[in-house]
Write a structure and sequence with these properties.
This protein has 609 residues and is an alpha/beta fold. It has 3 domains: 242 residues, 4-Layer Sandwich (Glutamine Phosphoribosylpyrophosphate, subunit 1, domain 1); 196 residues, Rossmann fold (3-Layer(aba) Sandwich); 140 residues, Rossmann fold (3-Layer(aba) Sandwich). The chain contains 18 helices and 24 strands. The protein has an 8-stranded antiparallel beta sheet, with helices on one face. Strands 5-6-7-8-12-13 form a 6-stranded antiparallel beta sheet, with helices on one face. The protein has a 5-stranded parallel beta sheet with strand order 16-15-17-18-19, sandwiched between helices. A hairpin with a 4-residue loop joins strand 9 and strand 10. 55% of the residues are buried. The chain binds 5-amino-5-deoxy-1-O-phosphono-D-mannitol. The site of 5-amino-5-deoxy-1-O-phosphono-D-mannitol (M6R) has 15 residues, from helix 9.
Length: 609
C-alpha cells in the first residue's frame, strides 16, 4: 500500500513527482505529499489529506522549485488520514525528509527510545521515527546514517530520503516493499511501480531487499549493506505507457474488463497449442518431481484466492492430485504441514501481497517447492519462488481486479493440464478437447462483452438494494464468491456468496420480497439442482437474475432475467460467467455514484499484514 516516487535530474522535480504519484494513486489515495530540495538547498514539504488533486491545487498556488525530490500517496495504517499524518515526514529541524511504504513494527519502542533522547513527534505514524533516527545517526554521511537506521527497523519498508545537509543526493532502500529505480538520460527515478516513471524511461533496475540506492552527481549507484557496489542488469520495460492509461474508457475498470479477451489470449500464447504438449518456459519442475507431489496448496488473497478455488477443481479433476486452497492470512498462522513432497502455488496479481509472500517463505522453509502465478515481472514473489508462471494481463490499475482474475484462471488451467500431461491422467483426445475449448475463450469473451444491456438494466433497477446474494454450485460457487466480492468492493452493497445447496441450512431466512439474487447455473451436471434452489428463493419473493449456458432457455420460466454465456465445457465456464458479474458491479457502482476505480478504504497492493 502507499506509493512512493523520487526524482533526481535537471527538470523541475515537483511536476514529475506529481505525475508519478498520479500513476500510483491506485496503491492508496487518502493523502499525498512531496518534499523538494529548493534552489537554496532547503527542503520544502507540501502535503495534505485527500486525493492528489488537493495537493496539486496547493502546489499550483505555491509552486516549489528544485530538481531533487520525493513524493508519496498514502493508504493509512498508523494514524487516520490527516494533513499531519501525510508523508513526507521530517525531523524537527526539517533537514531530513522521508517517504515510506510499509510498516515499521517496532516503531513504538523506537519512538520511546528517541523521546528519551529529546526527540519530539508530531504525527501518529510509524514512519516518523525514520527521519528522527537518521537525524540521530547523522554524522556528516547521509548514506551511513540511513544504513544505521534501517538496521534498527523491524517490518517492511521502501524508503526515499533527502536531506538539506547533503542537498545533491537522494537515497533509497527497500525491504519487503516494492521499489524500482528508473534510469533516464542524466536523470534518475525511484518508484513503487513501473507505470510511475514510464513517461520518462523504460530502463529500470529491480532492487533486492537491503540494496541501497545513491543518486548524486556521479549518477546512480547501488550498494549492499557492506557498502559494496552491486552490479545489476537493466530490465527493459517492453509494454507501453498507454497500457496504464484509460484509453477512452470512462474508468480503468471498464477498460480492463474489455481487455480480457486479449489478456486471456496473451496468457495462453505459446503455452497452449493444438497438438503440442503444454509449453512452460519459466517452469523447471521435472516429470519426476511432479509425480512425487502428494499434496498441493494454493494460497492467495481476495480475488486471487477465488482463482485458486477454481484451480483446486481444475487440478483435482484433470491431474488427480489432492489440492487444498486457503487464504494467505489464515494459512500462515495455522501451523501448516508441508515437506519436500508438497507443492505450494501462490497466486498474486501484484506479486507483493504481504500475506502471500509470508506463505511463500514459510513453504520454502519447510522444503516445499513453490510456483508463483503473478502478473508483475520482477515482483518479489516472482523472484523468491522456484518457478514462475506469468499472467500476461498487462498493468491492472483499477483496485477491483478483473483481467488479472481471468488470466489467473487461465494459469490454473494451464498448470492443471501440464500436470495431467506429465502424470498421464488424461488421454490425448481429452487433453486436446480441453485445449481446443480454451483457444476459443477469447472470442467467446468478446461476444459476451458485446451484449450487456440486461446486466446494466438489472444494475440500474437494483442499485438501491441493501443486500444482494450470489448463489452457485461447484465452480459456479467459486465464481459467485468473486462476483460478490466485486460488488461489495465498488458499490458498498452488502453481498454474500453461498453454495446454493447450503441456503436452506440457514441463510434462506434472509430472503424476503424484493431481495436481489444472482444465480449461476452454468454447470450442466448441477443445472436441475440449481433450478430447484432458484425456485426456493423465488417462492420467498426474491428477484433473480440467472446465468446459464446458451440453450438453457427453460430457465426463463423460473427467473426474472436470464443471461446466457456462450457454450463451453463446464470446467472453463468461470472465465466467461465472471464477465457479466464484473459488469454488474461496475454498473451498480456507477448508478450509485461511487468512485469505481478507487473504492473507499481499499488499495490495489496490500503490502502490509
Ligand atoms: O495482488 P494480489 O493478487 O496478491 O492481491 C490480492 C487481493 O488484495 C486482491 O485480489 C483484492 O482482493 C482485489 N481488490 C480484488 O478486486
Amino acid at each position: 500500500m502507499c506509493g512512493i516516487v523520487g526524482y533526481f535530474g535537471k527538470e523541475q522535480a515537483t511536476s514529475i513527482l506529481v505525475e508519478g504519484l498520479s500513476k500510483l494513486e491506485y496503491r492508496g489515495y487518502d493523502s499525498a505529499g512531496v518534499a523538494v530540495l529548493n534552489d537554496d538547498g532547503k527542503i520544502v514539504v507540501d502535503k495534505c489529506k485527500g486525493r492528489l488533486a488537493n495537493l496539486e491545487n496547493k502546489l499550483d498556488e505555491n509552486p516549489i522549485h528544485g530538481f531533487i525530490g520525493i513524493g508519496h500517496t498514502r493508504w493509512a495504517t498508523h494514524g487516520e488520514p490527516s494533513d499531519l499524518n501525510s508523508h513526507p515526514h521530517s525531523n524537527a529541524k526539517g533537514t531530513i525528509s522521508v517517504v515510506h511504504n510499509g510498516i515499521i513494527e517496532n516503531y513504538i519502542k523506537l519512538r520511546e527510545w528517541l523521546m528519551e533522547k529529546g526527540y519530539t513527534f508530531k504525527s501518529e505514524t510509524d514512519t516518523e521515527v525514520i527521519p528522527n533516527l537518521i537525524d540521530f545517526y547523522y554524522n556528516g554521511d547521509l548514506l551511513e546514517a540511513v544504513m544505521k537506521t534501517v538496521e534498527k527497523l523491524e517490518g517492511s519498508y521502501a524508503l526515499g530520503v533527502v536531506s538539506s545537509e547533503e542537498p545533491d543526493k537522494l537515497i533509497a532502500v527497500r525491504k519487503d516493499s516494492p521499489l524500482i529505480v528508473g534510469v533516464g538520460k542524466g536523470e534518475y527515478f525511484i518508484a513503487s511501480d513501473i507505470p510511475a516513471i514510464l513517461n520518462h524511461t523504460r530502463e529500470v533496475y529491480l532492487l533486492e531487499d537491503k540494496e541501497f540506492v545513491v543518486m548524486d552527481k556521479n549518477g546512480v549507484t547501488i550498494l549492499n549493506s557492506n557498502k559494496e557496489k552491486v552490479e545489476k542488469e537493466i530490465y527493459h520495460v517492453t509494454w507501453n505507457a498507454d497500457a496504464a492509461e484509460k484509453g477512452g474508457y470512462a474508468h480503468f475498470m471498464l477498460k480492463e474488463i474489455h481487455e480480457q479477451p486479449k489478456a486471456i489470449k496473451d496468457t495462453m500464447t505459446s503455452r497452449i497449442m493444438k497438438n503440442h504438449s503444454i509449453k512452460l518456459d519459466d517452469i523447471t519442475i521435472t516429470k519426476d518431481q511432479i509425480n512425487n507431489i502428494d499434496k498441493i496448496y494454493i494460497v492467495a488473497c481476495g480475488t486471487a484466492y477465488h482463482a485458486g478455488v477454481v484451480g483446486k477443481y481444475a487440478i483435482e479433476r484433470l491431474a488427480r492430485i489432492p489440492v487444498e486452497v486457503d487464504v494467505a492470512s489464515e494459512f500462515r498462522y495455522r501451523d501448516p504441514i508441508m515437506n519436500e513432497r508438497t507443492l505450494m502455488i501462490v497466486v498474486s496479481q501484484s506479486g507483493e501481497t504481504a500475506d502471500t509472500l509470508a506463505v511463500l517463505r514459510e513453504a520454502k522453509k519447510q522444503n516445499a517447492r513453490v510456483i508463483a502465478v503473478t502478473n508483475v515481472v520482477g515482483s518479489t514473489v516472482s523472484r523468491e519462488a522456484d518457478d514462475v508462471l506469468y499472467t500476461w494481463a498487462g498493468p491492472e490499475i483499477a483496485v477491483a481486479s478483473t483481467k488479472a482474475y481471468v488470466t489467473q484462471l487461465i494459469a490454473m488451467y494451464i498448470i492443471a493440464l501440464f500436470f495431467a500431461e506429465n502424470k498421464n491422467t488424461l488421454s490425448k483426445e481429452e487433453l486436446e478437447a480441453i485445449k481446443d475449448e480454451m483457444l476459443l475463450l477469447p472470442e467467446k469473451a468478446k461476444e459476451l462483452l458485446e451484449n450487456n444491456d440486461k446486466v446494466k438494466t438489472f444494475a440500474e433497477d437494483n442499485y438501491t438494494n441493501r443486500d444482494m446474494f450470489f448463489l452457485g454450485r461447484g465452480l459456479d460457487y467459486a465464481v459467485a464468491m468473486e462476483g460478490s466480492l466485486k460488488l461489495k468492493e465498488i458499490s458498498y452493497i452488502h453481498s454474500e456468496a453461498y453454495p446454493a445447496g447450503e441456503l436452506k441450512h440457514g441463510p434462506i431466512a434472509l430472503i424476503e420480497k424484493g431481495t436481489a439474487v444472482i444465480a449461476l447455473a452454468t454447470q450442466e451436471n448441477l443445472f436441475e439442482k440449481m433450478v430447484s434452489n432458484i425456485k426456493e428463493v423465488k417462492t420467498r419473493g426474491a428477484k433473480v437474475m440467472a446465468f446459464a449456458m446458451e440453450g438453457h432457455k427453460e430457465i426463463e420460466k423460473t427467473v426474472d432475467s436470464a443471461i446466457y454465456i456462450p457454450r463451453t465445457i463446464e470446467l472453463l465456464a468461470p472465465v466467461l460467467s465472471v464477465i457479466p458479474l464484473q459488469l454488474l458491479s461496475y454498473y451498480t457502482s456507477i448508478a450509485k455514484g461511487c468512485d469505481v476505480d478507487k473504492p473507499r478504504n481499499l488499495a490495489k497492493s496490500v503490502t502490509v499484514e
